[in-house]
Amino acid sequence: MEQYIIKGGHPLVGEVEIGGAKNAALAILAAAIMTDETVLIDNLPDVNDINVLIDAIEGIGAQVHRVDRHTVKINGASIKNVDIEYDYIKKIRASYYLLGALLGKYRRAEVALPGGCNIGSRPMDLHIKGFKALGASVELRNGAVAVEAKELVGTHIYLDKVSVGATINVMMAAVMADGKTTIENAAKEPHVVDVANFLNSMGANIRGAGTDVIRIVGVESLHKTDYSVIPDQIEAGTFMFAAAATHGDILVKNVIPKHLEATSAKLLEAGCRIEEFDDAVRVSAAGPLHNTQVTTLPYPGFPTDMQPQMAVVLGIAQGTSTVTESIFENRFKYVDELTRMGADIKVESNVAIINGVDHYMGARVSAPDLRAGAALVIAGLAAEGITVIDDIHFIERGYEEFPEKLSRVGAKIEKVSTEKEIQKFTLKVS
């Protein structure tokens, strides 16, 4: 079983390059099968979720050519099968994007209900509502969602809740529907905009992505394109928080600073110094960290995917902070692990009350999900002594070369798989 071992207490200093956005790339890969021509996608992150989805796309008959670790060519002309095998899909949540893509192109699809991180219910009801509104019938059978339509007809769809997944899925299905579709109360996240830009580069007619009303005029077919995925704002934010927690100084490169505004604002409130450049952000924390209040909200609010990392920083800030989680109900599962490292956190319903402590102490902890796992790594980097993190497969779903990138900015971290390797590391850093 692979683990990360960390010797904390070293400020992280230097530069780090951010990869492509996992959440955008997953939807873009699914959308790539909607044309019979060859699509080239680059700036893909080389992480497990992406590789599983590429395997699933190949599994239904699409031609897939891995040009290199971060670039793939996909041709969906040879797809024979619109039923996605369960084995692939139970591993990742974003598999549901294949529903919208296949329904749009072939008018039918069947995909096993998704797995991924257990951070609360992410129901499919909004996706289903959107597909039905476009004229599809939807059946739930044997743990799978089956959708079918004789024809898809553009319509007006109001999403009861802001949902990134449903916005993207309905948008993909509507791209090749007859007539005009309007999606109201649409999600405004950067990866929604990225998927819309990708579809438009293939000949779709989508306007309004990034606002709460998206208007789509259906087209008959889509064509080839070359496209580069946007940088990952969550990976960028994770390194920004690592700089803050370790009182370091990191230049985070290859980012879109606008996407990071909510994160930057909270780090400023906590006493960090932030410098913005055209495609980079520098975070430094020379002085003490201060308490603040955070509430997660849909974009442009503070992202739920940054909440555990923020809590780690506030755990060693002066005074009492509160973190309110308004998106996913199970997002505080990391608190028990962080408490083992000396944090003083109480969770009441969807609010974590955090009393800042002087420092964390190294301990053996387990990653409960992807972002919480990354947060525990940050806590280990800020802690005194040695931290071992189990269940790192969650972290590797969404971070490419995480230990390597951290090592480049001065972290003492290694991936190990035996007690012997743990002892070796301990001797080396002691």
Give the structure's gist in a few sentences.
The protein has 430 residues and is α/β, with parallel strands linked by helices. 33% of the residues lie in helices and 25% in strands.
Description:
With 430 residues, the protein is an alpha/beta fold. It folds into two domains: 3-19 and 231-429, Enolpyruvate transferase domain (UDP-n-acetylglucosamine1-carboxyvinyl-transferase, Chain, Alpha-beta prism), CATH 3.65.10; 22-217, UDP-n-acetylglucosamine1-carboxyvinyl-transferase, Chain. It has 15 helices and 24 strands. A hairpin with a 3-residue loop joins strand 16 and strand 17. The two termini are 24 Å apart.
For the record, the CATH class of the largest domain is Alpha Beta
Name the CATH superfamily classification of the largest domain. Answer: Enolpyruvate transferase domain
Model regions low in confidence, pLDDT < 50 over at least 5 residues: none
The overall pLDDT, averaged over residues, is 95
Number of separate strands: 24
Named CATH topology of the largest domain: UDP-n-acetylglucosamine1-carboxyvinyl-transferase, Chain
Distance between the termini: 24 Å
Provide a count of the helices. Answer: 15
* Gross morphology: globular
In total, how many domains does the architecture comprise? Answer: 2
How large is the share of residues in beta strands?
A: 25-35%
Tell me the helix content. 25-40%
Q: In the CATH hierarchy, what is the architecture of the largest domain at level 2?
A: Alpha-beta prism
Radius of gyration: 22 Å
Biggest sheet details: 4 strands, mixed
Strand order of the largest sheet: 22-23-1-24
Secondary-structure content class: alpha/beta
